[in-house]
């Protein structure tokens, strides 16, 4: 996969500061400083492949996630009831998570849901988003870039 084609978000802002001190403050004088900030926001993690394997219990399965770290920093990936996975810069590793089987058809469907969307494509995208949120809540996957973590 070409990760260079993934959409990036650019944020721009102007920070304005007013400051004063000493005799000028008493007289009501102050200085203003405006600072332009330009930030490129890029993904810090990609799931490049997802597959499943049966578990010893028929009510569970192993979800296999191939995870790629496109950053220049080491990061840690965690999931519910799982060991942490450390990914070095530009590294890809597989994470196995044992999960309860889940039937997407069992998701409650709102009767008015089909009326809300103007096209079948919109309805499909909304269902995919709902499925993604359901998976996310069950797995509890989170990650942190180690070089930006501070111990208090």
From TrEMBL:
Instruction: Name the domain of life.
Output: Eukaryota
Residue span, Trs120/TRAPPC9 third Ig-like domain: 54-127
Query: Matching InterPro entries, A to Z?
Result: Ig_TRAPPC9_Trs120_3rd (IPR058567), Trs120_TRAPPC9 (IPR013935)
Q: Per the record, GO CC terms?
A: trans-Golgi network
Q: What is this protein called?
A: Trafficking protein particle complex subunit 9
Species of provenance? Oryzias melastigma (Marine medaka)
